[in-house]
Amino acid sequence: MELNLFKVQNVIRSTSMDGQIEGLAIGGRSLGLWNYKVAHDLKGAPERNKLREEPIKGLRFDGQSYLAVDRSNYQDIVDEFYFKLTFRPARPDGVLLFIGDQASTDYAALEIRNGYLTYSFNLGGKTVSLESSETVPMEALTTVEIKRDGRYGEMSVNGQGVGSVTSEGDMEQLSVGTELYIGGYIEDEMPTSEVQDTNFAGNNS
User: Fold this and answer.
1) Which of 10, 94, 116, 170 has fewest C-beta within 10 Å?
2) What are phi and psi of 128, to 5 degrees?
């Protein structure tokens, strides 16, 4: 999983994902998946047989697990961000990425809904979202990229643009806490009802 963050704030309604994650980068800086703040029910996953600069063992998410990373050590994501995630889902629903907390209605989220990738964010007004035109294949690798620059956001899947969206109003910053959640959220504590309460099941790369 590669997450290049420039500034963001998000909240998602999902508990965990069922799948696997192999690596993560924030703002172009590699993050070993052992360098986390909180890990819940995570298991190691076999690495892909592929040469890479810094081999990182992946993690498998079973639909109840999630990973919380302290983003304060990385580039700020309040004004803009860029995330790139490669994952292998085991089921067609679940939260892949979530940024947000109970103290604010602001959030940003990436999730799988009925097999479709959905990217949404709220800067304090109305939620805006993008959805892939095709479902993602189960037990196969998919790469998704999401960006936000102020009120503007866009998403691409496997290198193909899905579309862009611009939120209404004057708010351009995302106000959230210091944790970045991967694969889901704390059970029954999702800050917004606009995101599903289902964690990811599968693998992230």
Assistant:
1) 170
2) -120, 155
The pTM for the full model equals 0.78
Given a contact cutoff of 8 angstroms between Cβ atoms, the answer to whether 121 and 109 are in contact is yes
Q: Which residues of the chain have pLDDT under 70?
A: 1-59, 73-75, 205
CA distance 34 to 64: 18
Q: Give the whole-angstrom CA distance, residue 69 versus residue 180.
A: 5
Query: Measured between alpha carbons, how far is 63 from 47 in angstroms, rounded to an integer?
Result: 20
Compute the Cα dihedral for 185, 187, 190, 194 and give only its sign: positive
Distances (CA, A) of 122 to 174, 198, 203: 8, 19, 27
Close Cβ partners of 146 (under 8 Å, ≥ 6 residues apart): 81, 82, 83, 97, 110, 119, 153, 154, 155
Confidence (pLDDT) at 75: 66
φ and ψ at residue 56, rounded to 5 degrees? -130, 130
